[in-house]
Amino acid sequence: MKRNYNRPADKSNGDTVLKAVLLVLIIVIMAGACIYFLSDLLTQEQPSIHTPGSDPDPEPDPFPDLEPDHESDPGAEPPPDPDPDPDLQYPHPVNITPVDIAESNSILSAALDAESLSHNCAGVSLVVYDGYEDLYYTYQYGSADKSADRPVNADTKFRIASLSKFIVAICAMVLVDEGKLDLDADISDYLGYEVRNPDFPDTAITSRMLMQHTSTIYDSAAFHDSISGSAWVPTRNLLTRGNSFWDRRPGTAFEYSNFGYTVLGAVIEHVSGIKLDAYAREVLFNPLDIDASFLAANLRDTGNIATLYDTDHRVARSVDTQLGNNRTGDLGEDQHLAQGGLLISAYDYAKILAMLGNGGVFQNYRILSADAVAEIHCADFKGPAYGQGLSTRFTHGGSPEDDPAEVINDILIWLYLDTDDMQLPSAGFYWHTGSAYGVYAQYIYVAGTGTDEGIGGPYTSRGVVVITTGASSGRASNGMINVCTHLSSIAWLGLGFDQH
């Protein structure tokens, strides 16, 4: 039978097949979408505090520059030292948008300008922060470098003198958290040679004593000659000659000691196995997206370093001099760094204070345990109330639930008036000053009650950081620097933080 290949197609059958195919495709697509949605929903994680080395799931390391903790595998080789090139270090992203006071509050900016001018400042960088709201208000004045007509900006790095000590103390507490450093152990065990005050050979010197300035190690002429480079002497020789100690039993008297913090830096290097600058970058600066260094040449942005001016606005330390100050030795021999050599911006320093004030957590990333933070804030020496790297000597009785805004408001008024007549509330008031090469620097902060939820109850850390160069300023009888306290007070009150 001859087939007729030219007959019209059966439309009803074709439509039925087409509909069936489309229906199958729709079902497949919907099923795939449901599976994807359910899979995504089931694998979603709620925000949590990240504690390095404690993640139970094999997720990608958020810090590709940080080596994994090899201690979990006793047979594994230790990781190599971090690459000293800061360009190879990738900081953790931080979600903050600072508010420039000059752009947001012209009246306050003018008041701060007038105060800066009245103290003859060459340059000023100030930050008022609210750690709970992640609000950072920045103010800048004057020149970072007069010869280059380069103004100070929020990221300008200053050599901050003794404010460096707090950073060294934090690094030590990270080692405590890691179980590698015992604050009450003999530092001789870490340094590899015996350190004793020759008048009290039976008393061990500990890291806690170094942090609290009770070690009796003092800033001898030989130490000053060594850090200046005019007559360098190995740290071991300075400590074992016997002429670098006060005639007091270690642990019984407070004597502020730059050399003591140099020795603490040496302990950190011997325990960590790497240089202090590399260790600070690894455990503190990178996780907070901070461009800071004890060696100016290691900064990511070396084009934004402040020239340091004296009170006559003459150059006290040029940028070239700071960049050239890269002398390093064996582990434990960099005497010119730990006590005052850190370069950092006021804005980046404020992030560190916010982390401490929030129980060791910054934007859901844990830097220190709550116990370590409590240790830092603890002033257990019966003398000047000095904790581990910071002072608490103006703290009075009060309630941990006190509003930090009100606390700092009262503190700044009290400091401004330079009086001991006002009884202050206390939610934990901490401070430190620094001065060298024309720099006057100071921070004041109030700590919250940071918890594992990352927020310290209804309030968390609030504070002020001020760094100046070239200022004509003295110190009040309470030890604070006048220019820094005055600028802090004006900024704090002008932003209305006292009304929070």
**What value does the average pLDDT take?**
76
Q: What are the secondary-structure elements, in order, as H or E?
A: HEHHEEEEHHHHHHHEEHEHEEHHEEEH
- Biggest sheet, open or closed, and with what strands and sense? 7 strands, mixed
Structure summary, number of beta strands? 13
CATH C-level name of one domain:
Alpha Beta
Q: What is the general shape?
A: globular
CATH topology of one domain: Beta-lactamase
| SSE class | alpha+beta
Strand content: 5-15%
What does this structure look like?
The protein has 500 residues and is α+β, with helices and mostly antiparallel strands. 33% of the residues lie in helices and 12% in strands. The protein has helices at residues 11-43, 101-104, 106-118, 164-177, 188-191, 207-212, 221-228, 235-240, 258-272, 276-285, 319-324, 346-357, 370-377, 404-417, 482-494; strands at 99-100, 123-130, 135-145, 150-151, 158-159, 308-309, 315-317, 343-344, 361-362, 365-366, 429-436, 439-446, 462-469. The strands form 4 sheets. Strands 1, 2, 3, 4, 11, 12 and 13 form a 7-stranded mixed beta sheet that branches. A two-stranded antiparallel sheet has the order 5-8. The termini are far apart.
What descriptive keywords fit this protein?
two-stranded antiparallel sheet, 15 helices, 500 residues, alpha+beta, seven-stranded mixed β-sheet, globular, disordered N terminus, Beta-lactamase
Quick overview of this protein structure:
With 500 residues, this protein is of the alpha+beta class. Helices cover 33% and strands 12% of the residues.
